[in-house]
Amino acid sequence: MLDPFPPSPAWLRDAVEPWALHYNVPALTEHAHEVIIAFVGYLAIHFVLSPLLSPILFPRHYPQLNPRTKLNWDVHVVSLVQSTFINALALWVMFVDDERNSMTAGERVYGYTGGCGLVSAFAAGYFVYDLIVSTVYIKLFGVGMLFHALSALWVFSFGFRPFVNYYSPVFILYELSSPFLNIHWFLDKVNMTGSKFQWYNGMLLLSSFFCCRLLWGTYQSLAVYQDMWYALKQTWDASVFQIRDGSLCVNEACARAGIQVSKYAPHTAAGVPTWLVLTYVISNLVLNFLNYFWFSKMVETVLKRFRTPPAAADKTAEAKSAATEEKINHLREDIAQKVVLEAAAKLEQEEGGPFLDDLTDEKVASAVDSRLTEELRRRKATVASS
User: Fold this and answer.
1) Which domain, by its residues, includes 73?
2) How many domains in the chain?
3) Which residue ranges run through the membrane (predicted)?
4) Where are the alpha helices (H) located in the chain, listed in sequence order?
């Protein structure tokens, strides 16, 4: 698949190419303008669009926020836009990029397509923005967020080598849970904590996190490890790439896209350096460990709720009247809703740790609304006395 984005202007290519070749990321020459556009776009959303539109769309909430929470709001707006856009782009590339879908194990390590390069470029643009914001506001966000931005930018720059360019859209799909995480945060700030909408969003957040980061992420990690192991064992030669002479193509674009897979073969002719594989594997393992750690914290939150059932639950067998049974059912529904909200809040606390507000109680359970808690207590007491 050719890059569907307009090509980089000649003056930018000439300026970037010497640096790209020096740092062994030659494909960056073709995508530098996309990195810059993404970076400038996210800066504009943060410093112009969000401060301009948020008071109009949320006049009763945004103007009342303190400066630190406004900064968090603007960062979350960027994160919401970026995660939604990059996921849609990655899924589109995975479905329409025929050259990517026909790659062999060797091509998945050494090969290149313009579509995968486009995903890497827009992801890199966001991580450059993330790095700048983390550096400027390091006292607010801490060193952890800075290192996260550095490591993410470092790993996605491998796609311009190109190294496992095939997997750029694969691992960006870790972000499928991020839109729901951001929405959860926004609902807290617009006084919709404990609402049905937040509950439904919380269920989508937890299920998408489990499916995308644990199931999909683990499976694809094993796949990339297998491909890299194959690449390390093989002696690099031209047979790494399939013969793509365009004989089966019906137009010039198809033929050009096929040839493009091996476009950077001269730069990868030395094979895969062991340090590069180790760096990639270690980064991937750390990220997977964090995903399992965050999910375990969420499960722990849920289990705590079921280990300490309300007193009314013990009286279920004794409740005989239809009215009491109905009250108990309502109570169970509210407890189930609260469990989802607490689990989503715990996930927000763990994964979204850098984006914290001034109030420390939000670090514990931002989704547990005092009104909901008081209502649960009242219902417990009513049912227990029945």
Assistant:
1) 10-193+232-270
2) 1
3) 35-59, 71-94, 109-129, 136-160, 166-187, 199-219, 275-295
4) 10-22, 28-44, 50-57, 67-96, 98-101, 105-110, 114-136, 138-156, 168-172, 178-189, 196-208, 217-233, 252-260, 265-268, 274-307, 311-314, 322-351, 362-365, 370-384
Q: How far apart are CA 76 and CA 68, in angstroms?
A: 12
* Coil, strand or helix at 357: coil
> Is the per-residue pLDDT at 246 higher than 60?
yes
Residue 297: which region, alpha, beta or left (left: phi > 0; alpha: psi -120 to 50)? alpha
Q: What are phi and psi of 98, to 5 degrees?
A: -65, -40
CA separation for the pair 330, 333 (Å, rounded): 5
Q: What is the pLDDT of residue 369?
A: 41
How far are the Cα atoms of 61, 145, 187, 250, 253 from residue 362, in angstroms, in the given order?
17, 19, 13, 58, 53
Query: 300 near 350, Cβ under 8 Å?
Result: no
Given a contact cutoff of 8 angstroms between Cβ atoms, the answer to whether 96 and 115 are in contact is: yes
266/274 Cα distance (integer angstroms): 19
Question: Residue 318: is its pLDDT beyond 60?
Answer: no
- Residue for token digits 């990517």? 100
Task: Write out the E strands in 212-361.
Answer: none
**Euclidean distance between CA atoms 138 and 116, whole angstroms:** 32
Domain-embedded: residue 337: no
The answer as to whether 205 is a domain residue is no
* Longest CA pairwise span in the chain (Å): 82
Cα–Cα distance measured from residue 77 to residue 201, given in angstroms and rounded to the nearest whole number: 17
**Does residue 259 lie in a domain region?**
yes
DSSP three-state, residue 299: helix
DSSP secondary structure code for residue 186 in this structure: H
Residue 35 burial by CB count (10 A; 0-12/13-18/19+): exposed, middle or buried? buried
Is the dihedral angle over the CA atoms 258, 261, 264, 267 positive or is it negative? negative
pLDDT tens, position by position, 184-226: 899 989 988 888 888 888 888 889 989 998 999 999 999 999 9
- Tell me the backbone φ, ψ of residue 340, rounded to 5 degrees: -60, -45
Query: CA angle, 35 as apex, 158 and 181 as ends, to 5°?
Result: 85
Domain membership of residue 221 (yes or no) is: no
CA 195 and chain centroid, separation: 25
Q: What is the dihedral of CA 70, 75, 78, 81, to 10 degrees?
A: -80
Collapsing DSSP to helix, strand or coil, 358 comes out as: coil
Instruction: Please name the amino acid found at residue 317.
Output: A
Between 7 and 296, name the one with better pLDDT. 7
First and final C-alpha spacing in the chain: 68
